[in-house]
Amino acid sequence: MYSPYQLGIKYLRYYLTASNGKGHGIHSPFVFNLVTAVLNDKTVYEDYKQIEVLRKELLLNKTVLRVEDFGAGSVMGLSKQRTVQQIAASSLKKPKYAQLLYRLVKHFQPKQILELGTSLGITTAYLASAKKDADVVTMEGSVAITFTAERNFQLLHLSNIKVVTGNFDHTLQPAIAQLPTVNFVFVDGNHRKEPTLNYFEQLLQKSTDSTVFVFDDIHWSREMEEAWITIKQHPSVTVTVDLFFIGLVFFRKEQLEKEHFVIRF
């Protein structure tokens, strides 16, 4: 994991060199439309409000949970005894990016959504709220966190979510096997190179040329950057968009040549 200072330097370099985020100079019609219709959509959707009210409540919740950690660990180095407040502060995706996931789902209209890394369910809620008739499967390692997330889904009246609990090494393949396809995938479950690439290869089994992959924290560590480079180079991948904290991956067969974009967001 990079230190906050290292990450800050990397972000500054990204910010100064990325495309300006307004679509100028982007010659791909597909990516230009993505920037203008999704990345730059400033609409405050009604769903945002109730999810953010729940986020605030979680940030004040001092209930203690015993958490199994199968990933690369918490950014804040928390112990296995964690409060909901601590998990919310360290693990929940910031509103800017959670709401981008909402807009991506709203734009691409996937029927089957898969999330690796439920945490307390805030990003899951955004994914499920954006298309309430989609089937959302979300995967979480910790039993205690799953229980809390499911309660949150009930509070938000979301009934299109199924939670799979356990180590992804054991649960991912059976979960994928039950799905006809995966149309939209958000990977936020393990910040190490080898597991990330293993998940990617498994998910490709049920992907189509219209599937969208979103990888979290692609610059979180050297390993994650190496994983991101490997994913970009995969023969099935035709377009990628680097937004620094997340990366978007597309498999558009009509794309004749690979294109990789770094866009300020």
Tally of separate helices: 10
In one word, what is the shape?
globular
Span of the ends, CA to CA: 22 Å
Structural class: alpha/beta
Strand content: 15-25%
Please give the order of strands in the largest beta sheet: 5-4-3-6-7-9-8-10
The ordered string of helix (H) and strand (E) elements is: HHHEEHHEHEHEHEHEHEEE
Q: What's the rounded overall pLDDT mean?
A: 93
Helix content: 40-55%
Major sheet size, sense and barrel closure: 8 strands, mixed
Low-confidence parts? 73-79
Cα Rg? 18 Å
Number of strands: 10
Supply the key terms.
single chain; alpha/beta; 8-stranded mixed sheet; two-stranded antiparallel sheet; 10 helices; 10 strands; 44% helix
Short description:
With 265 residues, the chain is an alpha/beta fold. The protein has helices at 4-17, 29-39, 46-58, 84-91, 95-108, 122-130, 143-155, 168-177, 193-204, 222-233, and strands spanning 64-66, 81-83, 112-116, 135-140, 161-165, 184-187, 212-216, 239-242, 246-250, 259-262. The strands form two sheets. An eight-stranded mixed β-sheet has the order 5-4-3-6-7-9-8-10, sandwiched between helices. Strands 1-2 form a two-stranded antiparallel sheet.
What does this protein structure show overall?
- This protein has 265 residues and is of the alpha/beta class.
- Helix content is 44%, strand content 17%.
- The protein is built from 10 helices and 10 strands.
- It has helices spanning 4-17, 29-39, 46-58, 84-91, 95-108, 122-130, 143-155, 168-177, 193-204, 222-233, and strands at residues 64-66, 81-83, 112-116, 135-140, 161-165, 184-187, 212-216, 239-242, 246-250, 259-262.
- The protein has an 8-stranded mixed sheet with strand order 5-4-3-6-7-9-8-10, with helices on both faces. The protein has a two-stranded antiparallel sheet with strand order 1-2.
- The chain is globular, with a radius of gyration of 18 Å.
- Mean pLDDT is 93; it is low at 73-79.
